[in-house]
Amino acid sequence: MAGSVDKLLRTAQTQAKSGAFREAEATYRELLARFPANKRAQAGLAELAAIVANSVGREPPRQLIGQLFALKRAGRDRDMVALAIKARAQFPRSLALLEIHANGLSALNDRAGAAKLYRELTALNPMNPDYFGNLGNELMLLGKYDEAEDAYERILALQPTNPVALNNLGNVKNRLEFNKESLEYYEAAVKAAPNYIEARLNLVETLLSSGEAEKAGQQVDEILKLDPGNLYAQTKAAIVKARQGDKEASLEQIEAVLAIEPHFGPALKVKVGNHTFVKDDPFFDVMDVALQDPTIVGKDRANIEFTLGRARNDLDEPEAAFAHFARGNAIRKELVQYHISQDEKLFAEIKAGFAEPRPALPAETGQGPDPIFILGMPRSGTTLVEQIVTAHPMVAPGGELTDLGTGLRRFDWADPNGLEKIGPDLRASYRETLKSLAGEKPYVTDKMPLNFRFIGVIKAFFPDAKIINLHRDPRAVLWSIYHHNFASDGNAYAHDLDDLVDYWYLYKDMMAHWNALYPGQIFDLKYEALTENPETVIRSLIDYLGLPWDEACLRPQDNKRVAKTASREQVKKPIYKGSSNAWQKYRPFVEKAFSRLDVWTDA
């Protein structure tokens, strides 16, 4: 044992002497993970930190650093970067100049360039949490959430209760629609720093999106104790009041915020969303003026554009409505930094990894409730079908479960033994989620639409699983996605008509692949057929599920469960025809993109 310790210590010392600081740090940390009390390893790690901090390279004179900061203070970031580049040629090993250069590129919105330099800084000084934080922030803005997560986790390895890193990890999970995980990180950030208002606001938002209005209200109260004039918290207080049924008090609160700051984006979003627009409504002019304010940016601006688009749509003004939807989507696409090649790569990897069915995992012991998967493109009718199925007394509603997406986010699709490595734990965790939702019922629905990507995994986990795939006129589906303002960034392809058409074909190709691998095992439900002949289709569906017939399935509008997705208002109505034609009044604006779609004949 002593020989093993000595060998690792010698290895770390040799690495440090050769300048391989990251490798030396990793060796010391490996040793400390096994022997936490080892004094020589602790001393070696501390010495390494000092070496990295003090002897990476010769630094420039203070006068030059002062000149660079003067340019920064004057707002001359481009000039600062130019001078930093020249100075780095003279002082190539200067950490200070490298950091100034990175900060300048960040200020100029060169996210990729800044990330590259921050990555260099983390390699040169892996003991500095700020470098990892800045790297993570740039990666977030580039939409590289997995890499950002790695950067923030490196901070926690150095400082386990760093509240900013915890908050940022919550942001990563939030972007990926992992509400449970984001909630845990935000709560940890608040516990680590109770006065950290940004983390509390993020916690409020996540609680609201999880339907926890009372808990969100408690957090808002805490923020307002810390900062009574915080307009974000005051706006959240209004939202909480609305969720609790006091719409009048909510609107009074919003008016109070707007009296202080007339163009405050979050409050305007709430006001617009609660305003009943009429033809030639003067409030349109008020909002047009507000949108000229350059301080209304990002999601706040996008939210207002989408809301105004819906208002124009309801007033049958498609040209004006489309202009709002287009602007809102353009903003959101810029925010998520999405390119269709990201999904093309993922889909190709999944298909290659499942060129043929993978063996089923060993059978579980004491199984519990079984899942019923309802999947397909978003806005294709999955919520309605869940209402139908969960009207049956043997089926509990699960809604859109994120478990599979979370567990497979970093899965190596090329690894032939990958499922054997992660499968048992992921399946067991998923089964626990089902148990928490089932009550005494033997089945639970999972209507996460994008689970269509994971049918191969589903069949390996649950060989007898029932899978319902929704088909619908793609023009209706894609238009419904495009003009819907999704709360999260999970549907990043949604913000460009050409991306939507490309994604539709990725979906179609993927489903053809799964149907070839698992013939006759997926129930293909045509939405238009459901609305034309509901009883025939529903009886066929219930028969496929192996459930005894129940008349309640014909009356999904009477199902008392609360749908939480964007289709919640529609499913309160009896099944009706015609919703697939809503896109047609926008034909002049979408026909160029939609001309690439196949002729729709499934009815």
From TrEMBL:
This is Uncharacterized protein. GO terms for molecular function: protein-tyrosine sulfotransferase activity. The lineage of its organism: Bacteria, Pseudomonadati, Pseudomonadota, Alphaproteobacteria, Rhodobacterales. It comes from the Bacteria. TPR repeats lie at residues 129-162. It holds the Pfam family TPR_16. Signal peptide: none annotated. Keywords: TPR repeat, Transferase.
